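Q&A log
Question type: sequence-to-structure
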Amino acid sequence: MGDWIRMLFRGRPGWMSALMLFCAFMAFLYLPWDFFWKPVAVDEEVWFGIMFTGWAAKVAEPFHWVVYAAGAYGFYRMRPWMWPWAAVYVAQIAVGMLVWSVVERAGAAGWTMGMVSAAAFTGLAALLWRARPRFQPHHRSLRDRYGEWALVTGASAGIGEAFAHALAREGLSCVLTARRAGRLETLASELEREHGVSTRVIAADLADPAGADAVADTVADLELAFLVNNAGVGYSGRFDKQDVERLRRMVQLNCVAPVVLTGRLLPAMCERGRGAIVIVGSIAGRQPLPLHGVYSATKAFDLLFGESISTELRGRGIDVLVLEPGATATEFQEMAGEIAHPGESAEAVVRVALDALGRQPSVVSGWFNWARANAATRLLPRPLLALIARDVVARGTPREMR
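Response status: OK
Response body:
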C-alpha cells in the first residue's frame, strides 16, 4: 500500500496532489450524489458567480462533472493540456466568487468575503499558471534513458514496424526479427538511411520452440536496452473447428516466446540498472472472447505476466509496459482469418505506448477501447459479457468458422 501511495503522489508538489484529490472527490463522490440523490427543489449550482437552482442546477451539474473528472485525470497523469486551462478555470472561479459574494451578500460583508475569496483563488490560479514546466514532458531520448540497442520482434509489418521506426527516430539501433527476411532487410535499409542508426536482421520463427533462444543467442554480443515483444498472431473461429497445431504455435508465439526473450535479456538490464520491456497484448485479454478464445487467453497471459514483472522491477530502473490495442489497421486481421474491419493506425498505437512507458504498467490504446476494456468488465456479469462478445466477434468471423 505504501508503494502504491508513493507512486500515486510522485511527480507533483503537495498542493497539486491536494487539487488532484479534491477533483477526484468532486468527480466520483460529491457530484454523483448531487446529481442523482439531491432533491431538485434544493439543488444549487454556481457558474461565473451566477446561482442556478432547481432543474437549471441539475442541467449544469454534468458540465461541472466533466471539468472535475478532467482535472483529476490531468493532475494524475500531468497532461500538457492542463496548462493553461487549469489556471483559466480557477481564475474564473476567483471572478465568480467575487460576483457571487457581492450579489448574495450585499454591503461591506459581501465585498469583504468576495475580495478574500477572490484573492485566494487568484493566488491558486497564479500557482497553476507558473506551473507550466511541470505539465510539459521532460523529454529525454529513449536512447539516453535506456541505452543503444533495441530488439523488436514481429518487425516486418504493422505495430512492430511502427515500433522500429519510432525507436530509430529516438536514436536507438534496432535488431529486427520476424520470419520474412526480405521485408526486414528493406526496413533495416530505411532505418539506416532515414535515422542514421545501426541495424541487425534476424530471420526467425518464434512459433518454433527453439526460436526465442536462437534469437537471444544471436544478440548476446549486444547491450540490449529495449525489448519489444510484439510478435503475435490470432486465429478466428469456433474452437472445435480450429486446427490444434496452429493453436499450439499461437500459444508458443504469443506466450512462451515473450517469457523466454524477457528471461534471457532482463538479467543484463538489471545489472546495468536501466532498460525497457514492452509486451504487446490486446484488449481481447480483458475478457472471455468466444470465436477468439485461445487468442484472448494468450493475451490475458501477456497482461498478467507484464503487470507482474512491472511491479517486481519497480525502483530498479527497468520500465515494463503491456500495450493493449484494439482493432488495428495491420495485416493481423487477414492472418487471423477475420473479415476486414476498420482499426486504429499502428503509428497511433505506438505513440500511446511510448507516452505511457515509465508511467504505468499497462495502457489501452484509444478512449473507446479503454471504455470497452474497463467499464464493460466492471459493470456486466462475465456470462453476459461473453455472450455480447460472441455476437460482436461473430460479425468479423467467416460464416464457415462460426
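Response note: The chain has two domains: 2-135, 142-401.
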